[in-house]
């Protein structure tokens, strides 16, 4: 513009700057809006606000946490009437966790300091007015006393510890014994079938039976320690209820807490969300299995797709002769990236699970099929098939990125290597691949981002709502590729559309979405860090 | 202008041009035609490069001098749609002999390119690359070759303390000398240099020219250059190309002092090109 003489004060030359920047602004706003919405809604799940006691003109009372406020459907736009939704909990008494209240019908709203918030093993949360804590000997600690809440907290913590011990015995140790018994029974059936001696197997089984009984007794002993203490409370309408303390997960005093305590509770819940297993049809508790499943599947997928993609790209770029066939293949590869993901899911089910898994079962696990009621091992959905299906889906991304990276290696480097007497393969291995590693990693990052968020194909080839075991554990061979697993993306779908209590599930949908975003970002950051390290090695190249 | 004059360095040992040694036709090019697709790039070239001498190829851009140079180690094989007629022999053996692997040819014919092209590896790994791809694993041999080559390339003193640093941290002139060290590490018989100084400043150019003088003790060198002064300074014989044809080939002194062709004289005196 410096050389265009203009008398006018307003620059004439560049109206398109505004237009194009407008496009960017719209895009950025949408991204920021999306992240903001997910973050606000997601984090709200863990925050404990004050819990008001709401009296209505018809005499009913609700104690509950404000969930949302909206214009009443059908109310005139000129004079909108609002209604509020409260999460009142006590699903078994109230018939639902949430109630809608017409704002005009509220006669009084107050913050009662005595209100107690409870998270329970079953039936969701509860907001109640405490009366007393009664232990098994009948000793009462009335709610008015200062030691009431500390005593309650101690009881709840104790109950949690016992649950953990029981879980360790039942799921962990008994699980191990069960797994071994299972395989021994198959071995026994096979041995009987072939008229081979079963002596050793029977002995080992007897030993395991004894061990099982031992563990069961140990479990019973721990279970005997379950507190018989009861919590006497009153619900909003004044009905007296008795809750066994053993059924409580957490208790808090929403209207007495300091800000610091609220923050503490926030992080406590966040920790549970990240590290614990789900409860209540996945609407409560943690997401550890889903986080773990997503992570393992994504990493495994990347490990599968990278070598395949890189090898294919090397052939396409370095060895294949240019011509119509090569061009057609390249177009096909590019178009593969546009195929709807569910198509890959169907292919994964039809080919990987049924054909490949079925064949492998017949070859390697014939005994298991024969002596275990035809229960398939690999011929059913699992981690391996999920990873393979997604690897296939993301293959074009890696191929295209690798081809670009290879062709971006300066000609001089290639010539220098060949002139030094290197063979083509040596040139590829020693010069081209290291030099194009950052570009290849960019492709892997894109593949990971696409793979980690994919749900539709996984539903067909091995993701489940609730998996009893993780795909990695302490039992040999440690990585169980045949196991079904949980996945954050599917978890979101499951919470949002399959949950019996959609109101209760909605905040969890946002929290899970936030988690999925964070997980994908973390995976990408990891890969980007590696890429930048590699790039730093090539910095200063003056080609 | 005599070919070898650089009194500032004592390291240069000038051999009298009359001294008889080595094959006269160490590299022998006979009736060589070369095509890129339908385009004829070289037309019936015939010339002999004597052993352990420096031959310079000069001529205007597009005259085919680089193409000829890149045929000597069959670097042009990388290009699609090429074709040649005639023959090139090195020490009596055709480089197009089907029994001769192109890899072993390139191990005997090292090449330095116009743009320095070090690998994104350490200085050490750059120098020993040719040995590594030959399968040399012995650390002592590699170390020795690295030092010898870097010394020959007059780079040793500058980099001996940072052999494991990235080669990409060197200056332009150092990088080009590193590329020379890399090209001579596996002791080739012939060194091809494709405008090795075109991207360098006069000081770096001077160092590389000095180097050429020393290297011709051991190597037969073919250098393509756009700088007439450089050709005059470093070469024993000079070939002038124009439009894919060899116009004149003679001792450097004769070409520059008393060319027999009018075109050569016109080019050298700067009247065209």
Keywords:
heterodimer; A: 543 residues; alpha+beta; 6-stranded antiparallel beta sheet; 3-stranded antiparallel beta sheet; 15 helices; 14 strands; 58% helix; globular; B: 273 residues; alpha/beta; 6-stranded mixed beta sheet; 4-stranded antiparallel beta sheet; 11 helices; 33% helix; 23% strand; disordered N terminus
The amount of beta strand of chain A, in percent, is 5-15%
Radius of gyration of chain B: 18 Å
The helix-and-strand class of chain B reads alpha/beta
Summarize model confidence as the mean pLDDT of chain B: 85
Helix content of chain A: 55-70%
Shape of chain A: globular
Strand order of the largest sheet of chain B: 6-7-8-3-9-10
Number of strands of chain B: 10
- Give the distance, in angstroms, between the N- and C-terminal Cα atoms of chain A: 32 Å
**Helix-strand pattern of chain B:** EEEHEEHEHHHHHEHEHEEHH
Main pleated sheet of chain A: 6 strands, antiparallel
Overall pLDDT score of chain A: 86
**Oligomeric category:** heterodimer
Please report the number of helical segments of chain B: 11
The gyration radius over C-alpha positions of chain A equals 31 Å
The helix/strand series of chain A, from N terminus to C terminus, equals HEEEEHEEEEEHHEEEHEEHHHHHHHHHH
Strand portion of chain B? 15-25%
Helical region count of chain A? Answer: 15
Task: Draw up the topology in text.
The complex is a heterodimer of chains A (543) and B (273).
Chain A: H1 15-44, E1 53-56, E2 61-63, E3 65-71, E4 82-87, H2 91-94, E5 98-102, E6 106-110, E7 116-120, E8 126-134, E9 140-142, H3 148-193, H4 199-224, E10 230-234, E11 240-244, E12 248-252, H5 259-275, E13 278-279, E14 284-285, H6 288-319, H7 324-336, H8 341-364, H9 366-371, H10 383-408, H11 411-419, H12 424-452, H13 456-461, H14 488-498, H15 502-538
Antiparallel strand pairs in A: 1-2, 1-6, 3-4, 4-5, 7-8, 7-12, 8-9, 8-10, 10-11, 13-14
Helix pairs in contact in A: 1-15, 3-4, 6-10, 6-12, 7-10, 8-10, 10-12, 11-12, 12-15, 14-15
Chain B: E1 27-36, E2 39-49, E3 54-58, H1 65-72, E4 82-90, E5 93-94, H2 102-108, E6 109-112, H3 123-127, H4 129-133, H5 139-152, H6 156-159, H7 172-184, E7 190-194, H8 202-215, E8 220-224, H9 228-234, E9 237-242, E10 245-251, H10 252-257, H11 262-268
Parallel strand pairs in B: 3-8, 3-9, 6-7, 7-8
Antiparallel strand pairs in B: 1-2, 1-4, 4-5, 9-10
């Amino acid at each position: 513009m410096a050389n265009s003489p203009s008398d006018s004060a307003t620059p004439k030359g560049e109206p398109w700057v505004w237009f194009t920047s407008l496009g960017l602004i719209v895009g950025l706003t949408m991204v920021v809006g999306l992240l903001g919405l997910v973050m606000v809604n997601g984090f709200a799940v863990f925050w404990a606000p004050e819990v008001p006691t709401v009296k209505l003109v018809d005499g009913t009372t609700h104690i509950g946490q404000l969930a949302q406020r909206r214009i009443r459907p059908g109310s005139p736009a000129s004079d909108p009437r609002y209604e509020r939704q409260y999460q009142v909990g006590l699903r078994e008494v109230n018939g639902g966790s949430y109630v809608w209240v017409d704002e005009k019908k509220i006669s009084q709203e107050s913050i009662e300091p005595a209100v107690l918030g409870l998270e329970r093993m079953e039936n969701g949360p509860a907001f109640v007015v405490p009366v007393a804590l009664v232990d098994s000997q009948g000793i009462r600690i009335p709610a008015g006393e200062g030691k009431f809440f500390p005593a309650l907290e101690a009881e709840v913590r104790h109950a949690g510890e016992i649950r953990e011990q029981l879980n360790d015995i039942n799921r962990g140790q008994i699980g191990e014994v069960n797994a071994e018994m299972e395989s021994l029974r198959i071995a026994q059936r096979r041995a009987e079938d072939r008229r081979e001696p079963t002596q050793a197997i029977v002995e080992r089984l007897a030993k395991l039976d004894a061990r099982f009984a031992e563990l069961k007794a140990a479990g019973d002993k721990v279970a005997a320690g379950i507190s018989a203490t009861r919590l006497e409370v009153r619900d909003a309408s004044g009905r007296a209820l008795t809750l066994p303390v053993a059924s409580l997960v957490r208790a808090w005093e929403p209207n007495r807490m300091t800000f610091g305590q609220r923050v503490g509770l926030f992080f406590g819940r966040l920790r549970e969300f990240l590290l614990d297993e789900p409860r209540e049809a996945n609407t409560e508790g943690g997401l550890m299995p889903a986080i773990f499943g997503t992570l393992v599947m994504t990493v495994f997928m990347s490990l599968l797709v990278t070598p395949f993609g890189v090898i294919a790209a090397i052939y396409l770029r370095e060895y294949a002769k240019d011509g119509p066939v090569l061009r057609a293949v390249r177009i096909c590869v590019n178009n593969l990236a546009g195929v709807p993901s569910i198509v890959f899911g169907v292919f994964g089910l039809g080919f990987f699970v049924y054909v490949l898994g079925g064949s492998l079962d017949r070859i390697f696990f014939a005994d298991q099929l024969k002596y275990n009621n035809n229960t398939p091992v690999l011929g059913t959905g699992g981690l391996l098939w999920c990873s393979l299906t997604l690897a296939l889906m993301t293959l074009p991304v890696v191929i295209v990125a690798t081809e670009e990276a290879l062709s971006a290696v300066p000609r001089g480097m290639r010539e220098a290597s060949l002139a030094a007497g290197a063979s083509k393969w040596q040139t590829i291995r020693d010069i081209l691949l290291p030099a194009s590693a950052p570009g290849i990693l960019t492709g892997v990052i894109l593949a990971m981002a696409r793979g980690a968020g994919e749900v539709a194909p996984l539903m067909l080839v091995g993701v489940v709502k609730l998996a009893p075991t993780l795909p990695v554990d302490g039992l040999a061979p440690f990585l169980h590729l045949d196991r079904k697993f949980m996945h954050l993306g599917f978890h979101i779908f499951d919470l949002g559309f399959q949950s019996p209590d959609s109101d209760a599930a909605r905040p969890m949908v946002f929290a899970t979405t936030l988690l999925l975003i964070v997980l994908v970002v973390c995976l990408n950051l990891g890969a980007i860090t590696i890429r930048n390290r590699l790039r730093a090695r090539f910095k200063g190249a003056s080609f | 202008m005599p070919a070898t004059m650089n009194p500032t360095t004592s390291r240069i040992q000038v051999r009298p041009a009359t001294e008889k040694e080595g094959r006269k036709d160490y590299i022998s090019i006979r009736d060589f035609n070369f095509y890129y697709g339908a385009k004829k790039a070289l037309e019936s070239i015939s010339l002999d490069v004597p052993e352990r001498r420096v031959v310079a190829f000069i001529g205007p851009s597009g005259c085919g001098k680089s193409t000829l140079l890149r045929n000597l180690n069959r670097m042009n094989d990388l290009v699609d749609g090429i074709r040649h007629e005639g023959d090139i022999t090195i020490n009596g053996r055709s480089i197009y002999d089907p029994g001769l692997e192109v890899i072993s040819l390139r191990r005997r014919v090292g090449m330095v390119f116009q743009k320095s092209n070090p690998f994104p590896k350490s200085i050490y790994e750059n120098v020993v690359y040719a040995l590594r791809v030959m399968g040399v694993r012995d650390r002592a041999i590699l170390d020795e070759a690295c030092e010898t080559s870097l010394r020959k390339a007059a780079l040793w003193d500058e980099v001996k303390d940072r052999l494991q640093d990235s080669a990409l941290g060197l200056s332009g002139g150092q990088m080009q000398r590193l590329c020379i060290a890399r090209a001579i590490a596996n002791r080739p018989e012939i060194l091809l240099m494709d405008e090795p100084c075109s991207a360098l400043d006069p000081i770096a150019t001077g160092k590389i020219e000095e180097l050429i003088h020393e290297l011709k003790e051991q190597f037969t060198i073919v250098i393509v250059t756009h700088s007439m002064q450089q050709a005059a300074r470093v070469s024993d014989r000079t070939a002038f190309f124009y439009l894919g044809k060899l116009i004149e080939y003679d001792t450097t002194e004769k070409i520059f002092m008393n060319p027999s062709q009018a075109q050569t004289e016109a080019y050298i005196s700067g009247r065209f090109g």
